[in-house]
């Protein structure tokens, strides 16, 4: 990446050049309000198959502002979190962590095979 462009809402009072061809819909990183499912934890939306780039990565303003303090205390090293999300966004790497109690995306998969003498694996 050689450069980045940051789109600001028109309601903000910062002095900036107007967007020409950039739109929020095309953004790869979106800073927006808290998602009820993820809280302040960054996440990447991936609607494609494994190996297909993700749609965008979501960050909250709190995470961005507190990346080197409270966010790091809550989630661990924020630089590693962003690299982890970048891999999902750029190369379509699927999430390797699940969620406690989630049937669709459990913390881990475990399959036991039972035979006449009990468990076989």
Assembly state (oligomeric): single chain
**Strand order within the widest sheet?**
1-3-2
| Outline | elongated
In angstroms, what is the radius of gyration? 19 Å
Q: State the order of secondary-structure elements, H for helix, E for strand.
A: EEEHHHEE
Kindly state the percentage of residues in helix. Answer: 10-25%
Number of helices: 3
> What's the total number of strands?
5
Distance between the termini: 47 Å
Strand content: 5-15%
- The residue ranges in which pLDDT falls below 50 over 5 or more consecutive positions are none
Q: What is the average of the pLDDT values?
A: 86
Structural class: alpha+beta
Largest sheet: 3 strands, mixed
Written overview of the protein:
There is one protein chain. This protein has 121 residues and is α+β, with helices and mostly antiparallel strands. The chain is built from 3 helices and 5 strands, in the order βββαααββ. The strands form 2 sheets. The chain has a 3-stranded mixed sheet. The protein has a two-stranded antiparallel ribbon with strand order 4-5. The protein is elongated. It starts with 28 loop residues before the first strand and ends with a strand.
